[in-house]
Hints:
Blueprint: E1 24-28, H1 33-44, E2 48-53, H2 56-60, E3 69-72, H3 78-92, E4 97-100, H4 115-140, E5 146-151, H5 155-158, H6 165-185, E6 190-197, H7 203-206, H8 211-219, H9 229-239, E7 251-254
Parallel strand pairs: 1-2, 1-4, 2-3, 4-5, 5-6, 6-7
Amino acid sequence: MSELTAGVTVSADPGAGFGLDGKIAIVTGAASGIGRATAELLAKSGCLVTAVDVNHKGLATLDLGDDGATDVADLSVPAACEQVVAGVLSHRKRLDILVNAAAILRRVPIAEADAALWEKMMDTNLLSQFFLCRAAGEAMKPRKWGRIVNCSSGAGLVGGFFGATAYAITKAGIMTMTRSFAKDLGPHGITVNTLSPGAIDTPMQRTGVPREALEANRARVPIGRMGLPAECARGAVFLASDLASYVTGHILAVDGGSLMR
Length: 261
């Protein structure tokens, strides 16, 4: 070690839990899909997870262990984002990890997209992540440690799939937003990264898409199949772990090779 890395410590063996045992985590969009898989995997890795979603029925069936918690919130409202973080600070006294997986997808042709649709998509998918990142970052700064993982999508790089234009635009915005926060929070020991799923077999991916379109999309994946939510969850847990201590502002594609670049 030289003066260039003075004061830096790295766990020699983060262990099976990736050094996550006892970490305090928030996972949004946790009632289903990637958010659900991530919340449960973080809990199994030793985190004390607060799972957030507007769908209270989905939250009720999560397996978060004995110390897990849930919070029903509409994250399209900025004040609700701040209240989620404040609630965890009140309950747990600190915050170590934020995974922003909450999103909605409305498949509407460009010619039919109106202002109400645009506003709802932007507020839920992008604005919520901004306010959660900001509130979480402020909560993490005093301890000089934190991990933020924002879920984007390969759609943000290619313009969307089957009427998902507005969705794709919000996901592209997340990538730039992540890098802005990575620069802002890096000096405080907080990493901020983007998880970019490809064709993942979730209810959101399938809803409103004909079978033949799904098959055509699957056929373009070099690995030859759609991914599983659990496979995306592993990427999120890596970015939240000690193993990613020197990774920030990064876009981690979990897409079976669909967008090699």
